[in-house]
Amino acid sequence: MTPRQEEPTADRSALLSRRTVLAAMGAAPILAVAAPTSGAAAASAVVVDPAARRQTIRGFGGMNHPAWAGDLTAAQRDTAFGNGTGQLGFSILRIHIDENKANWSAEVATAQRAVAHGAIVFASPWNPPSTMVETFTRGSQTNAQRLRYDMYGAYAQHLNDFVQFMKTNGVDLYAVSIQNEPDYASTWTWWTASEIVTFLRNNAGAISTRVIAPESFQYVKSMSDPILNDATALANMDILGAHLYGTSYSNFPYPLFQQKGQGKELWMTEVYYPNSTDSADLWPAALGVGEHMHHAMVDAEFQAYVWWYIRRSYGPMREDGQISKRGAMMAHFSKFVRPGYVRINAVSNPQTNVYTSAYTGGSTVVIVAVNKATSAVSQQFTLANTTATGLASYVTDSSRTLATLSGPTLAGGTLSATLPAQSITTFVVTVGTSGGTDTTPPTAPGTPTASAVTATSVTLSWTAATDDTGVTGYDVVRVSGSTETPAASSTTAGATVTGLTAATAYTFAVYARDAAGNRSSRSATVNVTTGTGTSTGTCGVGYKVTNSWGGGFQGEITVQNTSTTALSGWTLAFTFTAGQTVTQMWGGTPAQTGSTVTVTPADYTRTIPAGGSVTIGFLATQGATNPNPSGFTLNGGTCTSA
């Protein structure tokens, strides 16, 4: 966050650009459609499927910063983290790691009360201790400061000391960040992406709780891509944290995280929206917070959404300690979508100016609907693969705040409701399950690997999922942005996808399911480019051994595009003939089945210009002999070898 003392000197969060949200997952047949409510526009039903699970929600919350905004009072702590009438139901508290240990005690009281209400607490630093910092020139800033390179170990100990201090005071921190907004640090400490990677690789493992990085102020992917692309740094990062100041909705999705972030959490750790100048009760401006949260949950698939100051004129709690309209927007999520709930598939933009998302936990399905239109609209929601037994609903609009809404009907598995003009409505549906008493989904399958790539097909394999009662099958899906298309099904940890188009890039992922119909979270993705179907004349391959030692060697492969058009996306295949096995690769991602090796490109080698080439390096084991491999093919077409 920007202020050293009070509010930012300039508004960082200009109105975010809007985009049309593509209708997302959930093509299940509609079970029933109720008649539209008189006087409101009609739309087809949104199918809500509790078995089609997405990300697990960690929670919603905000920042308490006693040094800059004053501490919350005892009553305000209960308003923030309690979940009764007139309370926000926050389940996450963010606190500050002061560079001076003498100031740490200021964070304790509110953190203790948040924990007593069941919230988790995480912490972010703005600066290391002054003894660990040096100044340098960064552009026109002659007094920029950074952590001294010889102090990385001491800084990790400083962060760990804060973890232990809070634990001694009854607060087990869920996580610590290594730096708040390292790329927007004119008045605090700058970090480059490479410095963050170095710290994560060499020092973050000494911190005794989860580690958050990089907390870029605008979700700048160049700050986090290097972490995702470095296996050691990634292993020492537990949560990818991001801020969303001025970030366009089109930049919310993060395909690289979906591909490589398996087992990690994705959090939005700070924002205020749309600005810090207007009153938090200004309507309908406050409704924009509801839409912003919708896109954060659906488009970005964040697992946490954390506001800046909890109590502020522009925040979720006014200075008088009462919930603001912006706070009500957050409460429509935080009070009902509780920690451990899972977002489930539902069409996100069923009609103009209407945004819907859905979540499940235990015997509850929660649907949050934002209507930005200036008139009421009729919207139906059909629950698939479950039985609805009860309904409660709550609305905030120009005249009501978290008020009980009368009028929705629930019949035949379909909820029929009128969404008031410029409103947010939360529906809490009590459900059963069509799968019996087993409600535990399988674990996610392993990242699929591709082999036997042809012009029209690819064979995928993955590490099997596990389940408390047993996995009964797998569903392979083709992924395009936020849309998934069924591609194949299998009862084993492998499947062949057919009917593909030649020389086309595809992205695939896998779900596991059990006998009760519970579905796992999605696996990480794999990118595949189908073959061209041509035999010769479009590629050349140079292969050489650059170093060797007993039992191993280093090799280099140069892939030449000898065609007259650029090649974007490719799959290289070849066969070892003496039992060699690739152990590490740069410039590409290998998959080896027996003696056959398939290589897909890294981001920086994905495109090969006409007449150009890319180089791949690798390490491998070898036996008594090490002959060159044979049968090089690119996208299924045979290459000439040099």
Automatic annotation (TrEMBL):
Keywords attached to this entry: Carbohydrate metabolism, Glycosidase, Hydrolase, Polysaccharide degradation, Signal
Record's signal peptide: 1-34
Coiled-coil parts of chain: none
InterPro entries associated with the record: CBD2, CBM2/CBM3_carb-bd_dom_sf, CBM2_carb-bd_dom_sf, FN3_dom, FN3_sf, GH, Glyco_hydro_30, Glyco_hydro_b
Cited CDD domains: FN3
Any one GO molecular function term: glucosylceramidase activity
A GO cellular-component term linked to this record: membrane
PROSITE patterns per UniProt: CBM2 (PS51173), FN3 (PS50853), TAT (PS51318)
Membrane spanning stretches: none
Ranges where the CBM2 domain occurs: 532-642
Sequence ranges assigned to domain Fibronectin type-III in this UniProt record: 444-533
A Pfam family assignment: fn3
Keyword Signal found: yes
Superkingdom as given in the UniProt entry: Bacteria
Alphabetized Gene3D superfamilies for the sequence: 2.60.40.290, Glycosidases, Golgi alpha-mannosidase II, Immunoglobulins
Entry annotated with the keyword DNA-binding: no
Single biological process term from Gene Ontology: polysaccharide catabolic process
The family this protein is said to belong to: Belongs to the glycosyl hydrolase 30 family.
Official protein name in the record: Glucuronoarabinoxylan endo-1,4-beta-xylanase
Source organism: Actinacidiphila bryophytorum
